Amino acid sequence: MKRFFITLAVVLMVAPIVSAQTKGTLKALKELTKAKEAVSKKNDASSWLKLATAYLYAYESPVDGLYNGMDAMSMAAINKGAGAIKLGTEQKEINGKTFLVEKYADKELYLDQNGNLAAYKLTKAVVEGEDALAKSLEAFQMAKSLGAANKDLAPLMKSLARRHWTNAICSYNLGDYKEASAGFDNCYTITADPAVGEIDTNALVYSGIAAVLGKDSQKAIDIFEKCRTIPGAADGDIYSYLADSYKMIGDTAKCKSVLAEGFEKFPTNQGVLVSLINVYLETNDDPQKIISVIHKAQENEPTNATLVYAEGNLYRNMKQYDKALELYRKAAELDPKYVFAPFNEGDTYYSMALELQDKASEELDDAKYAVLVEQLNDCLKKAIEPFERAFSITDDPEIKRGCAEYLKNIYFRFRDEKPEYQANYEKYHKYAEEAAAPAE
Q1: Which of 136, 237, 300, 338 registers the highest number of CB atoms within 10 A of its CB?
Q2: Are 138 and 145 in contact, with CB atoms under 8 Å apart?
Q3: What is the pLDDT of residues 57-66, one digit of tens each?
Q4: What SS3 class is residue 98?
Q5: CA–CA distance, 371 with 53 (Å, rounded to integer)
């Protein structure tokens, strides 16, 4: 009993400070105090369940009503209604993104460039010295041990899991991948409890992705290996992430075997295919091994443009440009809307031109130099048609801009040859400039 009153005294001491921030927090602390009193008197499942709920609501109270993506006007109304007083603002640059940070006594709100809420960070514990989320889970577990029914536990535990999910998303958006991975872990663990009985594969996968971004390769391996044991959890991307994680710790053999299995199960997954090609090239392994794998997949899906395109990439990486160009054209014939085929055809010609330019710069014989320049110009002109085709069929602004940049440079070189070359230079130069301009 003495220990309880010491805790209560702490709560009462911090309450006036917190209540100056939000009305909801003061109310939540009062409910938490009542729940603690009930546990000290009854110590039954019902009382512990109420304490678990009270801890969760206390934790949520500083950000009650706020959600990621909320617009600035709605957010201001919520904070005003709660009595939250803004202490100041500052700009922060995180992972190349600029946020406007609104500072309060107990939290920071991170607004994106559109003024919408991108993340929050709680900066002050609601109850000093206590992790309210951890205490909430402990109380749920105590209620369960005392015989609480699953039907009573499940909905509240799901609420706790959702809060961990939201916290993880906030951490992810702010580049704190270790914290994000831990939050997704908690979400997965809570929902997997028999009281809830749900396997949240999304939480598990996101935990692994966050571990990859946080460069914790061993944790990522453990998670993605676990995904492979859960029916329906592992897709091609999982195999790609898993293989890359093995590669990060230097286990190339395991990386290859994972990718081979992933390719067999998901032959059209671009991530698996690209990783498989890259690892064979990086290890100077026999390229015929990967070519045979691709051909096997093509037998099953002869009209799949992606597989033909992937084979073209392999030949391009081996600098067998004629074969690569042939395969890119074949992929485009199979799927005229598959933009990567014409884009890479144009890019291959452009790369060939750059190689010829390097050779020409080192050539001292005028006649040989002239031949190289002629070949260079021929490659650049051959790149025009596929780049323009890619530009016309795609809706992706980045690909469209990339095509425009290439075409602008090519037409600039030949602008004096024909009036239409000058006109096309101006057309693509204007597009590239407008596409690069920041939105107002």
Answers
A1: 136
A2: no
A3: 999 999 989 9
A4: strand
A5: 79
8 pLDDT more than 60:
no
> What is the rounded CA–CA span in Å between residue 415 and residue 408?
10
Helices (H) and strands (E) in the chain, counts: 19, 4
Walk across the sheet containing 107-111 and list its strands: 88-94, 97-103, 107-111, 117-122
pLDDT band per the 50, 70, 90 thresholds, residue 268: low
Distance CA 60, CA 52 (A): 13
Res. 249: pLDDT tops 90:
yes
- Asked if residue 111 lies in contact with residue 117, where contact means CB atoms within 8 angstroms, the answer is yes
- How far apart CA 376 and CA 380 sit, in angstroms, is 6
Give me the domains of the chain, ranges plus CATH numbers: 303-440 (1.25.40.10)
Q: Where are the beta strands (DSSP E) in 20-147?
A: 88-94, 97-103, 107-111, 117-122
Structure token digits, residue 176: 């704190």
C-alpha to C-alpha distance for 54 and 63, rounded to whole angstroms: 15
**278 falls in which pLDDT band (50, 70, 90)?**
confident
Dihedral sign for Cα atoms in the order 294, 298, 300, 306? positive
The pair of structure tokens assigned to 119 is 């993340």
Distance CA 183, CA 207 (A): 8
Spatial separation of the C-alpha atoms in residues 60 and 41, rounded to whole Å: 26
Residue owning tokens 């390229």: 287
At 167, is the secondary structure helix, strand, or coil? helix
Angle between helix 236-248 and helix 270-282 axes, rounded to 10 deg: 30
What are the Cα distances from residue 171, in Å, to 58, 164, 210?
A: 20, 10, 10
DSSP string, 340-355: HHHHHHHHHHHHHHHH
What are the tens digits of pLDDT across the range 197-230?
Answer: 999 999 999 999 999 999 999 999 999 999 998 8
CB of 101 closer than 8 Å to CB of 90: yes
Is 96 a residue whose pLDDT tops 90? Answer: no
Closest to 68 measured CA to CA, from 105, 114, 120:
120
Spacing of C-alpha 363 from chain mean position:
47
Q: What is the C-alpha R_g of the chain? A: 30
Structure tokens at 58: 């206390």
Does this model's pTM top 0.70? My answer is: no
DSSP classification of residue 311: H
Q: Is the pLDDT of residue 277 over 80?
A: no
Contacts by 292-299 with C-beta closer than 8 Å and gap 24+? Answer: 293/260, 293/263, 297/263, 297/267, 297/268
